[in-house]
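User: Thanks for the earlier help. One more: Cupin. Can you show the sequence and predicted structure together?

Assistant: Of course, both are below.
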Amino acid sequence: MIVQKPSTAIAASLLVVALLATAGASAQIKRTPVLTADVAAPGQHAVVVRGEIDGGVSAPRHTHPGDEISYVLEGEVELLIDGEPPRLVKAGEAFVVPAGKVHGAHNPGSAPLRFLGVYVVDKSKPLATPAK
């Protein structure tokens, strides 16, 4: 396995999603790329991010060009996947969002939500795309 530092393109796409979520607000969503690495599937790679969403803040609806697997480290998140009822995921729990599925998230608490996200995605596409 080849371990790489996060690419500038990945960092930029994460910043775009974070900025969309916080436009006009002092609250924040932070996603810090930790690692990118090739995987066995041709044309795909894994991207690992450390994320934080301030209390009361919502991440905008978006998609990923591959699966998202996330683990909640601290706090809780209301996971909002189109076509599914909202689901509360607490610290110590994990969730999967299938490739291309429109979704968002909301931190219903006052404390920051901290999570670790792993995305197995198409290398040629942005990590996240805002939903229409």
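User: Great, one quick takeaway?

Assistant: The chain has one domain: 29-125.
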